[in-house]
Amino acid sequence: MYKINDDVVHKSAGVCYVFDIVTQNFGNGNTTYYLLRPKFPSVVNKALEIFLPVEKEELFIRKPLNKNEAMNLIRLIPSFERIWIADAKTRKQKFEEIYQSGDMKGLCQLVKLLYAEPEFFSKPMSLTDRNFLNKIKTNVFDEFAVSLEISASLMFSIQVLNASANLPFNP
């Protein structure tokens, strides 16, 4: 069981923290919930609150990587194969499957596509693909920020510097 102020990674909301643990009745009797809020609020998610039943925590949240796990994963990123599927429908399904799994290696493989040379693709990446991958990148880099105990703004600066050099994150 998580405690108030614990950091967690939510499958779709990314890095959050346990703001409170409350008992509420939303029509199915009294249930204990984690009240989650984004760890790094933005214009888009600053009002987000997630009520997650404690008994379903394993389905939706996990602990962030620890510092060693994050550093090991970051060191391996250059060796990760890029995942690209020519058929848009199949690609969307595969990307969504990886996203929902929360598997950081798979998510890093997807983020690596944002840094690929244009010649890697048979045609330019669609705006839909780019937006989806940028959302994943935000979640991945937010988790790295928490794992490495650095600020989101520093993590953003590292992203910008590496993007300008066309490189994946490399501390």
Structure description:
This protein has a five-stranded antiparallel beta sheet. The relative contact order is 0.14. It contains six helices and five strands, in the order E-E-E-E-H-E-H-H-H-H-H. With 171 residues, the chain is of the alpha+beta class. The radius of gyration is 17 Å and the shape is globular.
Query: What is the straight-line distance between the termini?
Result: 32 Å
Poorly predicted segments: none
One letter per element, helices H and strands E, the order comes to EEEEHEHHHHH
Radius of gyration (CA) equals 17 Å
List the helices and strands and how they pair.
Elements: E1 7-10, E2 14-25, E3 30-38, E4 50-53, H1 57-60, E5 61-62, H2 67-76, H3 88-101, H4 104-112, H5 127-147, H6 152-164
Give me some keywords for this one:
single chain, 171 residues, alpha+beta, globular
Q: What's the quick description here?
A:
With 171 residues, the chain is an alpha+beta fold.
